Amino acid sequence: MIPEIVAPGGTPAALVAAIDAGADTVYCGFRDATNARNYPGLNFTATDLKEGIAYAHARGRKVNVAINTYASAGNTRLWYNAVDTAAALGADAVIMADIALLDYTTRAHPNLRRHLSVQAGAATVASIEYYYELFGISRMILPRMFTLDEIAELKARAPIEIECFIFGSLSPMTEGRCSLSAYATGRSPNLCGVCSPAEFVRYDTVDGELICRLGDFAINAFGADEAAGYPTVCKGRYSAGEADPAYVFEEPECLNAAEYIGALRRAGICAFKIEGRQRGRFYVAEVVAAFRELIDAEARGEALAQHAGALERLRRLAEGGEETRGAYRKGWR
Amino acid sequence: MLPRRTQTVLPPGSHDLAVSLALATLPPPLIASALRRMTRALPRRYPKLAERLAEMAGKRLLIAPAELPYAFLLDFPGGKLAISLLAPEAAPPTDAQLRGPLRLFYDLVRGGRDGDALFFSRELTVNGDMAAAVTLRNAMDGAGVDLFAEFLNLPGPLGPLVRGAGALADRCAGILLGPLAGRTARLEGDVAALRGELRRLKEAAPKPRSRHAAAMAEALGVKP
Fold first, then answer.
1. Nearest of A275, A285, A179, A281 to residue A232 by alpha carbon
2. Is B149 inside a domain boundary?
3. Between chains, do B212 and A318 touch, taking CB under 8 Å as contact?
4. Would B74 be classed as within a structural domain?
5. A115 belongs to a structural domain
């Protein structure tokens, strides 16, 4: 079976671009704190989602709705309403992390597919079994911390479908538990849906250097010819003692696991997820088209080297202009 | 209504070149007048755009293409886009400033390049309030608005004139540059393959230890 391509739909135009480029499924979220990409100008109203689902279903594709932040105390209704709306509009699945929300959905919408968000940080067979037994999840999206061998072993023991990331920005491998953004700005992806909220970010060019500030902190300075990255604390450069400033968490680079398409498919991965709901329609169209070509080619038994053009198109979109194979091959552990 | 497909269909012709020529050579008052007519029509043509731009009320952005003698000042009264022209040195204080080659803005506005990738590669410079810049990008991109197509499709003589110039430029370019295109494509493929090979070699090689790590190892008496 060829794994499906699950593409980001940050806006209605990106959803259309993804479907047109060959995505099997698009994931998107509402314009509020219920999804982990709550950035200004992005996301879907209920009307947008209704139209997006109609567009996808008319072409035999699916739309999954990410409601994957943690509900705030005293205001759980916003999250429950989001699930009700997604169900009423005919979403194919909802992606969640919060156990209260998983519980609500299991009871209120037992026929709606429930996917476990990467934000849940379920990283052991025992935790996956827990979510499966209590909330009947159909699929989990794997945190970006496993090697290929670990994924194969996990799939053999886990009773559900597994979706994994194939391309896009990386976070510091503590998904759903990272508090760096909250430390610097008071807002986090886990509770507010935003990492490094744009209103706290400033870039200023000083003597040819691009200075990046987040809240009260200067987190990076890029030389005139140096590629820049996202303004997140984890991608900042810091001085420790007298050492030169360095990337102590991770470098600004982009996961590209194209060369593992075959290995992941053989391990039983059912879906490849592309990160990037904060990116524009061009990024979505380019990345989906490239992976459509590469995944179909792998299924036909063709070598990746025969598709150098698609790989080059991906490289041009990489954060910091650099690619990495992430944790799939942990040579550094 | 969902946005139209990924790229708004324009009639054939090198519109980027033609639009660049038009913007660089036509009298600024003529361009300003055309822009006013275009932005007035936007809320009717893209009803959801104003909704997405609502957060921009009170913000002011400057877009300064490198090749033009003037810059575009963007205001958002009531969430509606208004564009005026001015000399870059005469610009009032703005929340954010975007600078880069005209061709880059052409591609960006048409949904033909990725804004984040252009920013990473430093081709596009964004200074100031990122929330304003990001909101504008997301709103325009998300509604599938192609301002250049709107500009070229305005009623009146301007659109046909520029479109005609684009078609002519295409014919000339085809005659002059056609034979080079195939060769360039082959070279690009070769470079991509070499780059992939280099990346594999780089990842296979052990990473050099940092000065700090080496000093730490020495202090602890650990063999490097």
1. A179
2. yes
3. no
4. yes
5. yes
